[in-house]
Amino acid sequence: MKKMVLALVAMMTMTAAMAQGDNQKGEANRRKMNKTEMIKNRTNETVKKYGLNEQQAAKLLELNTKFADVMGPGMRGPGGRGPRGNGGARPRPDDNTTAQQPQTDGKQKGNRPEMTEEMREQMKAQRQKRQEAMKKYDTELQAIMTADQFKAYKADQEKRMKEGGRRGGRRN
Q1: pLDDT digits (tens, 9 = 90+) for 1-56
Q2: Which residues 6+ apart lie within 8 Å of 166 measured at CB?
Q3: Residue whose C-alpha is closest to residue 72's, from 43, 107, 96
Q4: How confident is the model at residue 83 (pLDDT cuts 50, 70, 90)?
Q5: Alpha-carbon distance 74 to 38, whole Å?
Q6: 90, 113 in Cβ contact below 8 A?
Q7: pTM for the full model?
Q8: Are 87 and 93 in contact (CB under 8 A)?
Q9: What pLDDT, in 10s, does the model give residues 86-136?
């Protein structure tokens, strides 16, 4: 009886470990997606969601390609994860990052350094640049979509803004 229970526990543990490994592989594949694949995926999702025809899809692909650097991960740096591409984390000793970390007086929260005025200004400029690009994108998108399609797109955009900008089922 003990052996059966132990065998069952071992099997369940192995199954859980394998499932976790598969999940991590899936995330790694998503992260390895190149810029072109990301643009195509975004375009295909929009085509399906709003029922665009082939002609609209071709124009949308051009539009998404045109705005990919401004509206996508490139806006934030490599990997789309902050200015250094590492989620804003401090560089590890083995990092070849040349970014200087501001000195603090020990009043920092968690592991993040205090924001300098220069950092705030950079963030403000990036936010303004992105907002201008989004307006241009929406104007060009409106010319591609029908009135009903664009109305549905804007409604979804408003909904995302109210939810805190969450997309693609990521709910951290």
Answers
A1: 777 777 777 777 777 777 776 666 666 665 667 888 999 999 999 999 999 999 99
A2: 160
A3: 43
A4: very low
A5: 12
A6: yes
A7: 0.55
A8: no
A9: 444 444 444 444 445 555 554 545 566 788 899 999 999 999 999 999 999
**Distance separating alpha carbons of residues 171 and 126, to the nearest angstrom:** 25
Q: Residues for the chain: how many in total?
A: 172
- Position of tokens 């071992």? 10
Contact 87, 81 (CB under 8 A): yes
Question: Cβ(114)–Cβ(107) under 8 Å?
Answer: yes
- Which letter, b or e, does each residue of 70-107 get, where b requires 16 or more Cβ atoms within 10 Å of its Cβ? ebeeebbeeeeeeebebeeeeeeeeeeeeeeeeeeeee
Whole-number Å distance between alpha carbons of 35 and 1? 55
For the record, the structure tokens of 154 come out as 């804007």
What are 81's two structure tokens? Answer: 């994860």
